[in-house]
Amino acid sequence: MDNDSSTRIVDGLLALIETAGPGARLPSTRVLVAEYGASPVTVQKALRTLATRGLIESRPGAGTFVRATRLARPVDYGWQTGALRTPPARVSAATSAMRDATNDRIALHAGYPTRELLPERLVRAALARASRSDAAFTRSPVAGLPELQAWFAAEVAASTPAGVTPPMPGDVTILPGTQSGLGSVFRALVGPGRPLLVESPTYWGAITAAAQAGVDVVPIPSGASGPDPDEVDRAFVETGARAMYVQPTFANPTGAQWSPQVAARMLEVAQRHSAFLIEDDWAHDFGIEADPAPLARLDTGGHVVYFRSLTKSVAPAIRVGAVIARGPARDRIRNDRAADAMYVSGVLQAAALDVVTHPGFQTHLRGLRQQLGARRDLLASSLRQHAPMAHIDGIPRGGLNLWIRLTDGVDVPRLVASCEADGLLIGAGHEWYPAEPEGPRIRLNYSGPNPGAFADGARILGSHLR
Ligand SMILES: Cc1ncc(COP(=O)(O)O)c(C=O)c1O
Questions:
Q1: Which residue minimizes the CA distance to atom 14 of ligand 1?
Q2: What is the Å distance from ligand 1's center to 354 Cα?
Q3: Which numbered atom of ligand 1 lies nearest the CA of 310?
Q4: Is 406 helix (H, G, I), strand (E, B) or coil?
Q5: Which CATH number covers residue 433?
């Protein structure tokens, strides 16, 4: 009833505002109460609504007045066409994985674990401690806080076999997230117009970073056990490339993990071609049935440039990662970082270090393993039941995604749009390909909010595939 009268008053005043024009004084609250037979609270509510819309303003002691309206004139940006000219090669980070989702959506598209999968208590305490530390007021060294450099180096050293020299803390450069580091490495070690081998499919952000760096990507097919080292060998010869971007551990999007044999052969191929393997260990903390075994632990001659990210395992708001490289490559990458960002916020580094060195973090990771396993299995069984045409090539032993093959002829952009109209967000598979996809695919992430809705999501997908 109250709402009704408030709407009635708003409508009445809107008509008055239009006829009276800017600067006109509105009737007083007392007059409006009498005119509309409403309470003073209801009249005030209606006036607040109009004030929020920017239509009226109250001047203390003088009354309420119609505001001068600002006309929204169409702006001509035509001059920018001449200034900008042709856009640089395919640089577009607007992917289906980065869409924002409202709570009423079933979000299987995104890449970031939901809050209940994060070490929330540890993060809160770490941020509070970091805010009281010196790191909150000082500039961090370009390469990062020495203790955090040491932690990243020790992580690789922990799995380095006897006889291999592990990386030193000084080989670590801390990054404000590894995404910007990918660009640095492509610029520093490859360079514009030069070839970079990449697995296909591969992380869309690496494809974007390569395009931004002006690097020519050369796709190498990669399946459930990674790329064929012989094919990589041939591609190094044919293209003259001296670097390849790879994800040997729970690759995004396929979930593939390289076998020890593939890892050893790939290292051997890289050594023979005097080339770099740029290893992106983004899912190091997301093993389910398998543990990560980074290539970097086997690297003897500085062939592996190793990325490790904490964004998804600590908190998306504590965006900290690292790149480990040895020899002149390390210095080139560090120079690029210094030119690009100068240094990474010490508060975030201190908080990240606090979380990962807290004994509770290992407990959290053990729990996370269980939760990811349960979520992955729930999504897979929901798809089998409600969307049998969505074929899962292989259940990944870690990571956050199911990589789905669809029947030939499915129009993926249309499928994505029609699922979205029904409240389901999914990742369009072609965004993970540097060239043409070999068939229609989608990526479904099982680390988002509300796993209770996985079955509904599978039903929506199934209904659109039918
Ligand atoms: C494979 C892969 N590498 C790197 C990144 C970038 O992560 P960040 O910049 O947060 O470290 C992502 C993020 O989604 C990813 O999926």
A1: 111
A2: 21
A3: 11
A4: coil
A5: 3.90.1150.10
Please indicate whether residue 285, judged by its CB atom, sits closer than 6 Å to ligand 1. no
Predicted confidence (pLDDT) per residue in 233-269, tens digit: 999 999 999 999 999 999 999 999 999 999 999 999 9
Task: Look at the chain and report how many structural domains it folds into.
Answer: 3
CATH of the domain at 29: 1.10.10.10
Answer whether 319 contacts ligand 1 (Cβ < 6 A).
Answer: yes
- Structural domain containing residue 25: 2-66
Instruction: Report the C-alpha gap between 460 and 448 in whole angstroms.
Output: 17
As a whole number, mean pLDDT of residues 176-199 equals 97
> Does the Cβ of 186 fall within 6 Å of ligand 1?
no
For ligand 1, atom 3, the nearest C-alpha belongs to 282
Q: Which structure tokens are listed for 261?
A: 């044999």
**What's the CA gap between 430 and 344, in Å, rounded?**
33
Ligand 1 centroid from CA 317, angstroms: 13
Number of neighbouring beta carbons within 10 Å of residue 361: 18
Token duo for residue 449? 């909010």
Cα separation values, 334 from 328, 342, 350, 368, Å: 10, 9, 20, 33
Give per-residue pLDDT as tens, 405-460: 999 999 999 999 999 999 999 999 999 999 999 999 999 999 999 999 999 999 99
Distance (Å) from CA 109 to ligand 1 centroid: 15
> Is residue 73 a part of any domain in this protein?
no
Q: Are residues 157 and 42 in the same domain?
A: no
pLDDT of residue 104: 81
| Domain termination site, one of 333, 360, 387 | 360
Per-residue pLDDT at 379 exceeds 80: yes
